[in-house]
Predict the 3D structure of the following.
Amino acid sequence: MIRRPTASIRAREIPCAEALLLMTLVGVTLSGCAALSGTDSAVEGRERVDTTTAEYAAIEVPKDVDYRARDLQDAPIELVPIIDFVFMARGVGNVFLIKTDEGNVIYDTGVSWQAEQQRDLLLAVGHEKTTHVIVSHAHGDHNGGLDAWKAALGEGAELIAHERYEYTNKIYGDTDEYLWRVRTGTLYPSHSAGQVATFRGYEPSLTVDVHEDYFFEVGGVRFQAIAAENSAEGEDALLLWMPDHEIVFTGDFYGCLYPMVPNLYTVRGEKTRDPIGYVRALDRLIDLEPEAILPAHFDPIEGKSYLRKSLQVMRDGVQYVYDETILGMNAGRSVYELMETIRLPAELEISQGHGKVSWNVRAIWEFLAGWFYYEDVADLYAVPAKSIYTDLVDLAGGAGPVVERAQEHFDSGEGLKALRLLDVVKEAGKESVSALRLRLAILEGMLDRSIATHDNMSESGILRALVGRTRDAIAVSTH
């Protein structure tokens, strides 16, 4: 597997006092000069990637990466010089400082419990004055550290966000308690108690419209804030482009891995992301032809040709899954059939360690046609299928025959069918120790397969939690 970026821009822990002296040794040379006009992302006068060459065709885009979102909990808080005036404070969420002659421009603020340490690392190599604080989107690992920049904001620094930021910040805030208690706490247990919600109260002083980029200059450094039409992490993604240096700050525009299948629906919750809006936004990012991407998580990524090709693969993969889902819908196939059969072609295979193709199929279906599949009319009413599970167990003559049938399914390699039957028994309140042990065997097998295939962090996280709960239930039942 290929791990980007190359060593020249990889993170290194550098004491603040030595950063200015050493950063030219670990930086990269990023160039570019011509101005952008209007909202056109094409830059005249600088070299473009030639996509017709054999060298470009030979560029390998990795089918997987060797890290996952769960690794972020072990990310050290450290200063990483990028070029001579751009610095990254690593953490769960990266925070960036661009140092200019007139003050600092900050991009993203990290999580609440790390933000002050990251701020202090950055200000040790920056200025006392901060002119702009830019938030990539309204997730708590990006705007969660706003309290750390309260003094700068109070002294007149602009707080810049996407035009949809206030909306998404509100709906995330409305559901914070539920999602952390029921969902996010399961997937990110180490962080479930660490986040505080005071960051939700900050209102942007300037928002950027999807159809009109925001151009500004600080200390001779030119910036372009680009409000994406959509992203893999919601509808309020704000990119920051430095045209003279061909650097783009992306936040979580494509997700936390690179490259990766996006989370058009994340199983922790939130709205389904617009697949076509994301494809168009990827087109915009591709047209910039960045030399380096500075993401909100993990290491920077560099190489103009590599970035163009990998971004194209991500874009074409989303478009492919969308097109195949539409074809299946129009052919009368069920959502479950399409989840089972739609696969990326070999040339578009990338990591499913955070997003997953089958989940995106269902997300696209429900984004376009809603949650009622016109199969079971009872689904339109407030009587869930599980309300008659006790009746089914009684009609079967008790839980025993149901568990026996579940065992038969399991023995024939149909573990998911077995799990469905065990869910019937569990909901009826008649789950025996033998049923629990069968459940545990099924879940452990699912977890092993998940890790051995895509090692999707959400899938394996949920399965780990269920394995633990089932083991606890067996322990209680046998003592």
In short: The chain has two domains: 7-305, 377-477. The chain is about 40% helix and 15% strand.
